[in-house]
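#struct-pred

JT: dropping the chains for the assembly here, can someone run the whole complex?
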Amino acid sequence: MRDNFLTRTWNWIDNRIGFSDYIVPLMVHLVPDNARWWYIFGSATLCAFVVQVLTGISLAMSYVPGGENTYESLVYITNTAPLGSLVRGMHYYGASAMVMLAVIHMVQVYMHATYKYPREMNWMSGVVLLFVVLGMAFTGQLLRWDANGVWSVTVAAEMAGRTPIIGPTLAHFILGGETVGGSTITRFFAMHVFIMPALIFAGIGLHMLLIMRHGISEMPDVNEPVDPETYKEEYEKRIHKTGVPFWPDAMWRDMIFSTIIVVVILGCSLFLGPPALDPPPNPSSINANPLPDWYFLWYFAVLSLLPPQLETWVILGVPVLGFLGLFFLPMISNKGHRAPSKRPWAGFTVIFGFVAFLVLTIYGYKKPWSPDFGVKELPASIVGTDQGPLAEGAKLMHIKGCLYCHDIGGYGGHRGPELTEIGKLLTRDDLIIRINNGGHNMPAFASSISDQELQLIVDFLLTRGVMHEDNSETTSTP
Amino acid sequence: MNTEQPQSDQPCCQQQQRRTFLTRLSVGLSALIGLIITLPGIGFVLAPVFRKPKQQWRTVGKLEDFKEGGFVLVQYEDPSPVVWSGVTAKAGAWIRRISDSEFIAFSINCRHLGCPVRWVEDPRLFMCPCHGGVYYEDGTVAAGPPPEPLDRLQVRVRDGKVEIETAPTPLTLTKLT
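RK: done, full complex below.
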């Protein structure tokens, strides 16, 4: 009786909304049976987006996008609001998951050359989605409106400001004026919460529509290169012969992987917590150490390693050319082999890209090009003594900031050459000239160092690497 | 979905003309609605780009507070804060007293990518934590990637008070010549 009532109710609703007519055919559309676990990344990216939408809406209930109240609301969400820390953490790790999965999904599609005929637009819409997701990641980092957020938006405005002719206009558009201020965060809030999610929803809609239109591609086969003349007809024949309904024959794998992703996001939030907040967003505070979130550390490193004459063109060119190159990839090659074994350059490109990303990210995290402001004085174990001219010279190395950039025995920055063995490599005159005049990306210290201080530093440096061999000779001061 | 065309007694070409007219009318009105909705919004969003606030002189301390020697960090309010700005309306500068009435001041923004430079007293250098830009005490580039010297700010002494003229965040522009 009850079943009959429920059935009748559902039938009434189904008749009115057309679920069986429109939605069920989409759910049970035929997909290749040989893809198995390869095609789980796209749906997992979508799942991560759902996590972002839901946790984002929750956060927006308490987040105040305006001036210093923004920071206070973040402190409240993190420390006081029930489950606030958990939700903020899920939003943060969900963003990382979404970026990672979108890239993995793209790499899989690239390696299987699924972007070839007739799925060129699937790829193109995916590229647009990837860049919007990166935009979400960047604006999301800024919504963590602390000291790091303020300086990150300043860096973004400076980068935009390098654009020829319209640079200042772009920079002031980003800042919401000529300086960082109250109007800055409200702009990024609008972009992050309204504009970009709307683009993502629209992009996902188009992406899904195209998937339904062209079908899920089969695994690459070396014996079946793509021929636009015959592909569709042959695909239809094969899919009707060997395909399986997406729901539930293929979808269970997506569900298992998406479940793992959600559990990992939850676990990270529970056990690692949300990212710590820096000091308040005071643009006049210099005690900040601006660093992008992990997905942009590689770019941060690139900007530090480039020769100055190339820098502007890389700042502006990498995003534009990167987008155009990826977007128009199917226009360059939309037929022929899909199998990775027949496309060795594809594998090489992915491996090179991954290694470059990894190396640059590690480099960006370590920041060897930055002065180490927190370096401690050299201990007696490294100096060899704790008194006398040698110890004074070692102390001056710290006071004068030499150790900010030079490492001695594991103490000091890495911006300049390591000086642990410098006594073997340079003479007294070499050292004096180098310290006084600078050069090779080192400032000249002639105006900020006295003769006596210079002699003490040089005496100390001359003992580096040779101290144990001839201590008496190198510790004399003329 | 019913997509069949209704039967009509009107001659074919007359019906077609009517449809063409209605199509154009609908597209045109859609465009008009779009313009009416979006233009004020676009103007509102772009206004800060074209609105140039008048720079202001801001007091950063009494004359006697500044001793001759190294640079000290001062804070002041930017020229056109919105009411909800709070601490985000602040701007910073490095200022140094050179003589009884002479000062020199620099924006804290590195000319590489805008990060906050720090004054390090003993080597008498400004250093940037982001990409390792280094400047001498006169603001000129000593090392690292900055393409230009630190941006100098105007300073004056009025009625025993030291004042700095506010300025936009210094941008390093690309010249095509």
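JT: nice. The radius of gyration of chain A is 29 Å. Residues 182-214 of chain A form the longest helix (33 residues).
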